[in-house]
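User: I'm curious whether this sequence folds into something compact or stays loose and floppy. Could you predict its structure so I can see for myself?
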Amino acid sequence: MEATRIELDKEPDVENPVFIEGLAGIGHIGKTCVSYLADHLDAEKIGELYSHHFPPYTIIHDDKTVNLLKNDIYQLKRDDGRDLLIIEGNAQASTPEGHFQVAERILDFVDENNVSEIITIGGYGTGDVVEDPQVFGAVSSTEVREKYSDNGINFDHEVGQIVGASGLLLGLGEERGYDGICLLGETPGFLLSDPKATEAVLEVVEDILDLDLDYTELDNKVEEAQEVLKKLQNLQQQQGQDQDQGQQDLGYIG
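Assistant: Here's the prediction. I'll summarize afterward.
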């Protein structure tokens, strides 16, 4: 059996689609964004990607059945915009070799389906809670940056690297001749899920792809999450102050 394999329930039926990736990562922004797109656009699930490079555990459901970690693949045919191929999931590879192998297998699938462009989504942890999270962008070429210069993306940032599939698909995809952009939602990194940063990224994707999304579900989560984030940040700051005081006291005693 292949270490990394794609199992399709049906062959994709899309024309020159945009490929969108969002997997588990900091703030779960990539997975949450792409899962939200698939759900709210009524995209059709057509298959899964499995890999021996995913972490060695299974997911236990409410009925106590188990499933392997996987990434789900969707398609969306659009009459009023570009078709989409989507991959989202709860796992990434756990080794450098695995990351490269999974990314290459995904790009083989991209090749097989005549993808026109790649959009990857992730999070960038800053440690700070902000009222209006930015969306940082990285691109395969200066031409792509110019193309998306008016879409509310911050290209004037100091993000130095992208870890995992979101970066590799962009870099390896560029080697195969694909235009691509990575969108990174600014998040403190305190929580597994950051709905406010997720919404900020979704608004950019909506603009890029000329979509019409309903944010009601996310809006209900944003206020709750912001309160939790602020409490966690205050706790972290207090712990830092206590640690500094302890070091000062220790120095005095010694």
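Summary: The first strand starts at residue 4 and ends at 8. The two ends are 62 Å apart (CA to CA).
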